[in-house]
Structure formats: structure tokens, C-alpha cells
Amino acid sequence: MAAIAAHGACNAKGSGRTTRTKKELLVSLIDRIFDKTFTGLQRTMDLTWRRNEVITSNITNAETPQYRAADFSFAGELDRAFGDSTEALKRTSSKHLDTTSSSSAHITPDLSGATKADGNNVDIEIQMGQMASNSGKFSVAADLYRRKLSHMKMAIREAGR
């Protein structure tokens, strides 16, 4: 209970504030645990997993003639998942791009590697570097997600005391 009490209990005398009940403290702690970051971390893991699949496909097809490397772009999706997206743009002409789609994640051509004589542009070293970076991002998101769940477990355990 000491951990919950440290998260916002007030003294009753002299401060004009009342003492919060155990239930109020628990609800407050749960609200802090399930904030935007919880769903944002879930979305981050989903999107990095999808990017890993695209990179794996590039590596698998490194010797396939005419294969063009691809990448999976999802920066706008993370902004939306963590609540950082700005106000929607207004489309004033039919010639404007439609920015109201439900997902800004999409597969794009990866032009980072030089095109070889057989038409393939996959550079294994670049792809392996991208996979290592992407795997690190997934691991960080998974670790933070695990910590969030650990905090929830602690809150539930403390509430039962």
C-alpha cells in the first residue's frame, strides 16, 4: 500500500485537501498506467513487425532478378497512436491528395541500394542494418509494454492488501 500512498495521498489537516481513499488512489494509478502510451506501444510493435516482414522479403529476394527492394513507412501512424497528430487538413480541391485515410502506413520503394546488372537493387548490408535498427525499436517497445503490465500487476497486488 505504501507505493499507492506515495502516488497522491494528501494530509487532511491544514491543507484544505481531503485524504483520498484506497480505491481512489488505485483508480488514479490505473488511469496513469493505461494512458496513450499503452495503445501507442501496441501499435509500435505491430508496425515494426510489419516493417520486419518487408525487410525479410527484401533479404529473401536479394538474388532474384528484377526484384526491387521495398520499405514500410509508418511515421504518421505513430504520431496518431501517441496522440501527437495535428488537426486534419481540409481538402479544398479534388486535385489535392486525400489525407483522411485511416492509415498512413504503407509500403514504399527502397532506393537505398544500387541497381545491379540483373535489375535487383537489394543491398544486403543496408537491409541487415535496417533489420537491426527495426528489431531494436521493437525490443524497446516490448520492454516498455512489459513494464506497463508489471506496474498494473503491482497495483492489483497492492489493492488486494
SSE layout and pairings?
Elements: H1 2-5, H2 22-33, H3 36-60, E1 70-73, H4 75-81, E2 106-109, H5 124-159
Antiparallel strand pairs: 1-2
Helix pairs in contact: 2-5, 3-4, 3-5
Structure description:
- There is one protein chain.
- This protein is mainly α and 161 residues long.
- Helices cover 52% and strands 5% of the residues.
- The protein has helices at residues 2-5, 22-33, 36-60, 75-81, 124-159; strands at residues 70-73, 106-109.
- A two-stranded antiparallel sheet has the order 1-2.
- It is elongated and about 75 Å long.
- It starts with a helix and ends with a helix.
- Residues 1-15 and 97-101 have low confidence and may be disordered.
If strands are numbered along the chain, what order do they take across the biggest sheet? 1-2
Largest sheet: 2 strands, antiparallel
Low-confidence stretches: 1-15, 97-101
Round the Cα radius of gyration to an integer and report it.
24 Å
What's the shape? elongated
User: What is the average of the pLDDT values?
Assistant: 79
User: N- to C-terminal separation?
Assistant: 7 Å
Order of helices and strands: HHHEHEH
How many E-type strands?
A: 2
Number of helices: 5
How helix-rich are the residues, as a percent range? 40-55%
Strand content: under 5%
Q: Structural class given helices, strands, pairing? A: mainly alpha
